Amino acid sequence: MGGGGASTQNSHMSCRFINELVDCVNENLRLMLPQCRKGYGVLDEETGKYRAPALDKGLDILEFLAASPDGLTKVEIAKGLGRTANEIYRMLSTLERRNYVTSSPGGDKFMLSLKLLMLANAHPPRRRLLDIAEPLMRQFTQKSEQSSHLALWEDGNVVISSSMSAPGNWRLALRPGATVGMYNTGSGFVLVAFQPDQTRKRMIGEHHLVKGEDRIPDATFLKTLDHVKEVGFSRGASQTLTGVINLSFPILDPSGCAIAAFTCPYIERIDDYDAPTLDDVIAMAGEAAKQIGRQVSGRFLGLR
Questions:
Q1: Residue 220 sits in which domain range?
Q2: Verdict on whether the full-model pTM lies above 0.70
Q3: Domain end (from 119, 144, 178)
């Protein structure tokens, strides 16, 4: 009996000790959490996602230095970013230690090194674009039951860089490597429409007509381009084949310029098969173009 009482008493003491320990740990976590969030992640109330303020600070420095080829002093960087020199000191030191930033011989100015360029060159732009686009193009063709292709601008030509055939018995797909018109295709409209005015003029001036393509007066063509950009994509009957509606969407870079055109040559079924409608396919193609642009540029760009 005596042994049992001692055991019960020890058990109660152990439980009380554990409860006190848990309370102590919880209180310390409560006090530490704001500091952890401050240093490693802060919940953005607008997006519902966590941000990393320290990483933001480092990226701000890199982007600011990218616009200053002659280099900047620590004070100039801090002033330009609206921060104090003490706030950027450790981040700048880390970027220099990791060779993203280099200092002048006198050590008073900082500038970007070539490390970012080396990292970018590890993924050739065209191959990277196709690696991103082709799985999404394949998903689109399966869902829409339509073909699709990706067009790029190359030395005055609109060139088909990748092509996906629709599943099923009926398909219409352009051959990869084929050159198509600028004045008579949705791909051509989109590639030129989503460019600054000077770039538009240069592209029009250097374009080589293909068989069956007629030149359009500049004033008329520019109005067409303005309309395409206003709407956000090109939709129109094919000017080379009967019964096809070309749906072309831009793949945009971070500055909003088209780096490629994603096009679906839509063919309507007239039997009883319940295929996706034209409106369905427009929505699917627009979403596919957005997704490709997001992965290429790291942000959502595209349709209004």
A1: 125-297
A2: no
A3: 119
